[in-house]
Amino acid sequence: MLSEKEKLESLSRLGVELNQVHDLDILMERILTEARQFVNADAGSIYIREGDHLHFTYTQNLTLQKRLPKGRKLIYSTFTIPIDEKSIAGYVAATGRALNIADVYRLPATLPYHFSRKFDEASGYKTQSILTLPLTNAKGSVLGILQIINCQDAEGRITLFSDRDEKMLFHFASIAAVALERAQMTRAMIMRMIRMAEMRDPRETGSHVNRVAGISVEIYEQWALKRQLDPSEIDKTRDILRMAAMLHDVGKIATSDLILRKPDRLSSDEYEIMKQHTIQGARLFLNEQSDYDTAAGIVAFTHHERWDGSGYPGHVDLNTGQPCPGYSLADGSAQGKKASEIPLFGRIVSLADVYDALCSKRSYKEAWDDQSVMRHIRKDSGYHFDPELVKIFFSRIEIIKAIQSRYQESIPILGK
Predict the structure, then answer these.
(1) Phi and psi of 15, rounded to 5°?
(2) pLDDT tens for each residue of 28-67
(3) Chain centroid to CA 159: how far?
(4) 4-183: what CATH class?
(5) Is residue 343 exposed (0-12), middle (13-18) or buried (19+ Cβ within 10 Å)?
(6) In angstroms, rounded to a whole number, what is the distance separating the alpha carbons of residues 401 and 320?
(7) Residues 356, 404: contact at Cβ < 8 Å?
(8) How far apart are CA 259 and CA 266, in angstroms?
């Protein structure tokens, strides 16, 4: 439990630290973690506003997490609720007023809002005290809702959130809302680039890139934990990788519609043109101004390389598109990169991208069934994919499937 001095010190650095997180999903996870620690809460959730609804976006629950085997994560279903006065979160979003409730099971029937017991009944969890606050921008618009659950005292007993807790979290929420709005604008800019590619290639959807990005981050995190990397370094890299992975196919904006929209298999000449999207995508990030540019360039350039060296574009000069000295094959093409020659980010996104593409319906194919997809991934371990990453992939398959389920539909980027 943080002392009052530690809370004040934490608030003073919070704005700087949150503004160093650029990806929207990573930021929401960080906001929820920090908020719970501020008031020693057992659980919490974040809802993001989408028009006249709230989208249940992130949640944490220490009690339920402790029931799982080590290394497992909680899996939650996503859902939306209307912004009205019937639910606790909906009421706060509709009115802009916070609610501090001592026991949600003892709410007077005369109140307009009520507590749904469905989650508690399904999980065996007991919700008691809830503090729900609006995340409001400088214009007074509600971007979302921060809900903190079950405040714990020094002995671990559930208690009411104090007035001091409420005031502290109001300050926290105002800082978090600034970071949240900035991250939403960053995500919006990325998604505009994705939509540019989608105009050329209908397969390159917002849902697809969010799934690829989420799966990539999950694989990286487990890879990093195996190596006992510093947690702060892992958090920073997750943020960078998630945004870079979303832009893996942005180079397709330079590819002809006749190729991108062709419903049949490409000819050999057409395929060679298609392969250039890796080079075109990487060239967008040649004028590097941040770690995000560097990572996006690496992912765009190398996510079609194969572990056995049979991928593309291989060892080529980005400026000329020609093979690097010593890497030219007899047919004039470049020798592919293989094994550890392929950067980690490229190896990870390759696996995530192929998995999601196999699971998805395309103009030229139906979605593969789950067993066929799994057999293909296993078969290509050591050929197409890094064998270590394939092992990690299968060890996290439940989480990966949950990520796929979460992004079945594109989520609006800006709060309204």
Answers:
(1) -60, -45
(2) 999 999 999 889 999 999 999 999 999 998 899 999 999 9
(3) 33
(4) alpha beta
(5) middle
(6) 40
(7) yes
(8) 7
Cα→Cα distances 393→148, 311, 396, Å: 32, 21, 5
Distance, CA of 392 to CA of 343 (rounded, Å) = 17
Residue 143's contacts (CB-CB under 8 Å, 6 or more residues apart) are 48, 49, 135, 136, 137, 177, 180, 181, 184, 415
DSSP 105: G
The pTM (predicted TM-score) of the whole model is 0.87
Of 5, 31, 8, which is closest to residue 18 (Cα–Cα)?
A: 31
Q: Which long-range contacts (CB under 8 A, 24 or more apart) does 226-229 make?
A: 226/392
101, β-bridge pairs: 130
Q: For residues 359, 362, 368 and 370, what is the CA-based torsion angle, rounded to 10 degrees?
A: 20
Q: Three-class SS string for 216-235?
A: HHHHHHHHHHHCCCCHHHHH
What are the φ and ψ backbone dihedral angles of 220, each rounded to 5 degrees? -60, -45
Q: What stretch of H or E contains 65? A: helix 62-66
Task: Show the tokens assigned to 331.
Answer: 């047919």
The 3-state DSSP class for residue 184 equals: helix
- Mention every residue, 6+ apart, whose C-beta is less than 8 A from residue 122: none
Residue 142 CA, chain-centre distance (Å), reads: 22
For residue 358, what are the CA distances in angstroms to 101, 233, 271, 354, 371?
A: 47, 32, 19, 6, 11
Q: Which residue has the tokens 């719970």?
A: 36
Placement of tokens 């990573």 in the chain: 26
Residue ranges per structural domain of the chain: 4-183, 201-406
Three-state secondary structure of 259-302: HHCCCCCCCHHHHHHHCCHHHHHHHCCCCCCCHHHHHHHHHHHH
In eight-state DSSP terms, residue 141 is -
| Paired tokens of 267 | 């000819």
Distance of CA 404 to the CA centre of its chain: 11
**The CATH fold of domain 201-406:** Hypothetical protein af1432 (1.10.3210)
Question: In angstroms, rounded to a whole number, what is the distance separating the alpha carbons of residues 182 and 180?
Answer: 5
pLDDT tens profile 247-292: 999 998 888 877 877 778 888 888 889 999 999 999 999 988 899 9
